[in-house]
Amino acid sequence: MEFKEFGFSDELLSGLDAMRFEKATPVQEKTIPVIKDGKDLIACAQTGTGKTAAYLLPVLDKLIRDGHNKINALILVPTRELAIQIDQQMEGFGYFLDISSTAIYGGNDSGEWNRQKNALTTGADIVIATPGRLIQHLTMGYVNMDTLQHLILDEADRMLDMGFFDDIMQVVKYLPKERQTLMFSATMPPKIRELAKNILIDQEEVNISISKPAEGILQAAYMVYDTQKIPLLNTLLKDKDLPSIIIFSSTKQKVKEIARSLQSNGFNSKAISSDLEQAEREDVLRDFKNRNVQILVATDIIARGIDIEKIDLVINFDVPRDAEDYVHRVGRTARAQTQGVAITLINDKEILEFHKIERLIETDIFKIPLNPELGEAPAYNPEEILNKRKRGGQKRKPAGNKRKTFKKKPERKQKKSDN
Q: Do 239 and 369 belong to one domain?
């Protein structure tokens, strides 16, 4: 479906043409008509399906038609990285449409706080914010949300995972009751339903490929012991002429260890985690996006908050604790119908966690045999482990069919003192 079929204004269509937006993705086809009709919406779509444009385009079209000079739309996001990413997309649209946006997120820079305050008081058309920092501004009393028409929650499931339910509800108290509310989520757990019940009214629902990696991702895995992971990683990356690689690990400590090992072996790599200051994170992401850094080693802090085209390879150094996080990690590659590769290193203690992932995505991921030079690898045997646990959990029955009998205790003789 082409974008002109949505009935967008000529200004927006010209901007889309200049930015080489040609055909709508499935999530855009299904959600844009609902949003244009002014209905509340809850949409479930995996990372990399074009959901940001799915909500931005109809909101921008309405701004063009109705005029704008104050805060019209609020987009709540879980991380500053995602806020910056969406704001950068808005800068592209704003170049053609003269519509303003601002990103509101935490940090210790007083200059950044003043910039955010100025943008909120002068009335940027679209505000993209993390809940905690926005609440700080709202409680100061200088933010007027009376003109707001659209509330959008992007990565709603991630926000709830990070404990933002109460913050979201607090932000909602500052907003007009008459508004359009849109929720976009990669998964649809019960807590998302609870949030939707609290803030949406008579909503439409759209589901696109729930919790499934994109078709263009070639998925594979290795069975390894922990001591084999770093040697295998160096072997996998040796002589690889791939300009853009992300390695995910679950802990900040491991991220540092992996980055140090890669650097000592001559790889062009950098680490990114919550230990870095915001400015440092932005510098690392900029270098990676500009292809000045080949390998980015990261925690899940950016699993959803990075939008970089043509990431060639994603490596899960360890299995994600949450099966759904696997989808977000590998979703960094094969974006926008391109091809990509995702490899996971599974140790003997992570077998059941990876089995959960395979059940979630309904796919048996190919296990590549480990090079004999790296030693013997553990076997992938989830069913055997599950059966052992099941047997271990059963209560043992007494041997034989004899019933256990107990001798009756003799009655205690009463003493005179008892009376």
A: yes
pLDDT tens for each residue of 211-232: 567 777 899 999 999 999 999 9
Q: What percent of the chain has pLDDT over 70?
A: 86
Listed range (2-11, 155-164, 403-412) with the worst mean pLDDT: 403-412
For residue range 79-124, list pLDDT tens digits in order. 888 898 899 888 877 777 889 999 999 876 778 899 999 999 988 8
Domain that holds residue 240: 217-380
**33 & 161 share domain:** yes
Residue 184 scores a pLDDT above 80: yes
Separation CA 73–CA 153 (nearest Å): 11
0.90 cut: is pTM over it?
Answer: no
Are 186 and 160 in contact by the 8 Å Cβ rule? The answer is no
**For residues 268-282, average pLDDT:** 83
Instruction: Please list, in sequence order, all residues whose beta carbon lies within 8 angstroms of the beta carbon of residue 348, skipping any fewer than 6 positions away.
Output: 223, 225, 378
- Binned at pLDDT 50, 70 and 90, residue 243 comes out as confident
Any domain includes 266: yes
Same domain, 30 and 162: yes
Domain end among 182, 208, 234? 208
In three-state form (DSSP H/G/I as H, E/B as E, the rest C), the secondary structure along the chain is CEHHHHCCCHHHHHHHHHCCCCECCHHHHHHHHHHHCCCCEEEEECCCCCHHHHHHHHHHHHHHHHCCCCCCEEEECCCHHHHHHHHHHHHHHHHHHCCCEEEECCCCCHHHHHHHHHHHHHCCCEEEECHHHHHHHHHCCCCCCCCCCEEEECCHHHHHHCCCHHHHHHHHCCCCCCCEEEEEECCCCHHHHHHHHHHCCCCEEEEECCCCCCCCEEEEEEECCHHHHHHHHHHHHCCCCCCCEEEECCCHHHHHHHHHHHHHCCCCEEEECCCCCHHHHHHHHHHHHCCCCCEEEECHHHCCCCCCCCCCEEEECCCCCCHHHHHHHHCCCCHHHCCEEEEEEECCCCHHHHHHHHHHHCCCCEECCCCHHHCCCCCCCHHHHHHHHHHHHCCCCCCCCCCCCCCCCCCCCCCHHHC
Q: Which of 174, 208, 242 is the last residue of a domain?
A: 208
Of 329, 290, 328, nearest in space to 309 by CA: 290
Distances in whole angstroms, Cα of residue 222 to Cα of each of 3, 54, 130, 319, 348: 42, 37, 37, 11, 11
Q: Give the number of domains in the chain.
A: 2
